[in-house]
Amino acid sequence: MDLFSAVVLGIVQGLTEFLPISSSAHVSIVGRLLGQEDPGAAFTAITQLGTEAAVLLYFWRDIVRIVRAWFASLAGRIPRTDPDAVLGWWVILGTLPIGILGLLLQDWIETDLRSLWLTATMLLVFALVILAAERVGRQERELTELTWRQGLGFGLWQALALVPGVSRSGGTIAGGLFMGFTREAAARYSFLLAIPAVLASGGLQLVKVATGDAIGSGTGWGPIAVATVLAFLVGYAVIAWFMRYITTHTFTPFMVYRIVLALVLFGLLGAGVLQP
Fold this sequence. Notes:
This protein is mostly helical.
């Protein structure tokens, strides 16, 4: 991968990671339009470390508060029913589905699930799912009302993002809306829930790239580093904008974009302009 492609893909990763439009789909599509092969699951997972660093920076106060409360509850210094301590347990619980399925389906994720036909289909299907969630969801619950069942439910929705085109934030937010949470609560929990999953996935792929075991590990460390730094910088700006946007706006514009992108992608694949 050349430096120009790395710059473009890093910006694309940062722009799309936190919006409900699927960053993995965009990195895969843009990579092929640039004349590159599919950058692969390894490149995507590592550059996601950049965007996840943006999450850590943006939500650092929430993260520190939750982690402190969780450890304090274990030590008996505060009640185990403390809302922040409980939220820490639900984040751990919600991480299990994507962790278990990610390990079990790892080879499939890195090969068969990278098909652009499947990506286009998921872009379209989940646009309709998220539109339905926003229409039927009561949007009245806050994170203080989260139960273990709902925490696990969020995690199951997040696990769907193992398929490119679903969107980690889109899938998790849709699940939250179906369970009656507000857009802001669902988005905030979506970002917190992604932290352990993305850090674990990116760390694993770093090791695999270093040892030459990752698919697409031919990409040099220089382009990967450039893309990751750009993903961090752009991603932070997008988080700040998105969290303000959803307080007064719906997800409908993003869903219209997903549907149009899916139809364009079907057309490009059908015409042979892109190879699946």
